[in-house]
Amino acid sequence: MERLLILNPGSTSTKLAVYEEDKSLFTESVKHTPEELAPFDCVADQYDFRKDVILSCLKRHDIDLKSLTAIVARGGLLPPIEAGAYTINEDMVWQLKNHPRNEHASNVGVMIAFDIGKQQGIPAYIYDGITVEELTPINKVTGLPSMQRKGMGHNLNTRAAALRYAREHHKAYKDITVIVAHLGGGISVNLHHNGKIEDFINDEEGPFSPERAGGLPMFDVIAECFKEGNTYKDMMKLVKTKGGLMAHLGTTDAVEVERMIDNGDEHAKLIYDAMALNIAKNIGKLAPGVKGRLDAILLTGGIAYSKLFTDKITDYVSFLAPVIVYPGEDEMQALAMGGLRVLRGEEKAKIFHRVVNM
Q1: What would the mean pLDDT of 220-239 be, rounded to a whole number?
Q2: Quick check: 358 pLDDT over 90?
Q3: Which carries the bigger pLDDT value, residue 290 or residue 358?
Q4: What pLDDT is attached to residue 278?
Q5: What local confidence, expressed as pLDDT, does residue 105 receive?
Q6: What is the 3-state secondary structure (H, E, C) of the chain?
């Protein structure tokens, strides 16, 4: 019986779980206060702190490290990688210590997984890492040679939804063509075709969301950047955490917005309807890449629990393909299922090689 330790560190928490085959023995999210994290200058410095949290949690749940079969971590901010599993090796750890794409708590999760795996003599993997980048060359091109479109975003959850669709329809992942929209605090839309995520509209260029501004009129953005007093940090905060529903309605909670609509708030209805239409338009943008030959459109993420909202999107896009709703996102289970597929020989883990000049 396979027993997997799942690690998913975030900026203010460490999520971990233990799975026996496809069943969770426990899942826990340990919160970290700003005071606890203040002594650390960078993410790598949090190694001992995060590892102690993980080991203490396992002890609380009476999990012996010797009982583990494998470890699966979320994956750090590596250079662009393919979807699927990678064996955590010394090159990957070196990359995240010396030349990560950016600072992120998942970087140290990989380091911890590697060391525990090495100590116990068991394999450690990442699965559908944060920096999965599979766009075809034509889909990367923009109007400026210095800028390319990127595939970095909600790959773990959207690919889990696509794999679920393939499994339920008794097809191989490589034989399906689906558009998946992740509906959460950030919203992204991607195209799965030929076994890869061939196109991707992420939450910096796509629909606005509960907290992100999404794609904006470029000339207005440039003008806003040069307003007196505005800094890079101010602008990033504006588009990443103060946009979307927050900017228009003062909340990021879709349930609260629906309550406002039920109480007769016409402005809230307009903004909510506009968000749904924005998502539908971006789903439509991906269809020409496969000449409209789609098996399905999948809606997933936390907001997909709202039938009111998914019905709005479905009404706009069902002419393209059947719409299927897979509400919620369970990153821990997606990681566990990915690890199980490798252990069972259904997928082969790739090997990462360090990139010195990024």
Answers
A1: 95
A2: no
A3: 290
A4: 98
A5: 87
A6: CCEEEEEEECCCEEEEEEEECCEEEEEEEEECCHHHHCCCCCHHHHHHHHHHHHHHHHHHCCCCHHHCCEEEECCCCCCCECCCEEECCHHHHHHHHHCCCCCCHHHHHHHHHHHHHHHHCCCEEEECCCCECCCCHHHHECCCCCCECCCCCCHHHHHHHHHHHHHHCCCCHHHCCEEEEEECCCEEEEEEECCEEEEEECCCCCCCCCCCCCCCCHHHHHHHHCCCCCCHHHHHHHHHCCCHHHHHHCCCCHHHHHHHHHCCCHHHHHHHHHHHHHHHHHHHHHHHHHCCCCCEEEEEEHHHHCHHHHHHHHHHHCCCCCEEEEEECCHHHHHHHHHHHHHCCCCCCEECCCCCCC
